[in-house]
Task: structure prediction
Amino acid sequence: MRFIGKLNRDKRGAGSIIGATFIVLILLSGFTFYTLNVNTTERYNKTLETMSELDWNRNREKPVIKGISITSANKLNITAKNEGPIQIHLIWLGVFNQTPTPVTQRYFSLDNYIDPDETATNIGSDITASPQNQYLIQLVTERGNIVSQGYPIPTVLTGENVFITINGPATLPYKTWTVYTIRVATASGDPAPYAYLSIYGTGSSVKLRHGGGGGSSGPLYDHADENGVYTVNVWSQTDAGESFFLYVVAGNLVAKKSVYQTPKP
Amino acid sequence: MLRPLFHDKRGVSEIIASLIIVLIVTIAGVALYSYSLGSLSSSSSSFQLQTDQREEQARERFSIIAVWWDAVDQLNLTILNYGKIELAIDAVYIDGTMVSISSGREITAGTGKLISVKFTSPVSIQDGQTYEIIAVSERGSKNAVYWKA
Result:
């Protein structure tokens, strides 16, 4: 009898032990999965934070190409300034030769660090280039920013004083391409080579073109040649005839020429 | 017939009965626990896998930095990987039309490296026109540029 009573107590004990074991296992498993998932989520959130920081820093970068020249040994010499508040790491230099058709694009590896407000010179000094060619120079930063500049850099920039003359007939024959020559000079009277120009005709049917093609009714954006000269072909086909202005903008100066298009014969 | 059975003191002893019950409960418990563990494990693995994929995609950053055109129909995209993980380009679309990439597809590029993707445009390229070019990575990230021929 005493033996049976002892067994009964043991039986209850065995049940409790099994129950407790399962509870402990369930709690442990639950905690393990919870910890794993929390760790995964935390890692993901940390990655998002890191990438947000990258994007934020990317937006703060401000590299500027201050100058491009080609040395007498036909080597590139690029001057770049960091106008942003954080250090910049330049990793690629793109040199696009725009003289041939199609253009050629080459990329060269760089490893230049530029501190805020620092100006770096002699970038790309081991790259051969010809001063006779026109290039588009591209600097690429580690954070993915790109800054581009054409070579040769126009000497007339927005804000500088220039003189513009537009030479061409005051009367434009109906439906006839007519040449107007634009000359751009600096304030000292010297030709302004490669000056950027915006040309626009106010007539209702005016088209502009440089060289061949069908022309465009919108503004023409281009640059003068090495002597500061640019030729534009003007076309107008208003049946009743029309007077309009031909506007040319370079630097901070606007020049205009009054043109009369003759009526349809 | 039943009467002797109820009054029969012989049969399965309490110890054996208890052991059998304990065994049954234990086996049932283990089975239920294993099943639950398997389900939880599967669910957790799926969550981890999805999060890992999302994390990898979040670490991707790339940009089309140059478009070269041969003046006919051949195009070459230069793509910079500036993210925190290597990537490969899987598809390119021009004006919404998928192109057939002749070289540069599925080529892995590390951080800070350039990928050159060449293809023949399925869309007729005309000088002065603007085209939307979209590059898609293997993880599904996209970068679009509006390129003027």
Q: What stands out?
A: The first strand of chain B starts at residue 62 and ends at 69. The mean pLDDT of chain B is 88. The helical segments of chain B are 2-7, 14-59. Strands of chain B lie at 62-69, 74-81, 89-94, 97-98, 100-103, 114-120, 130-137, 142-148.
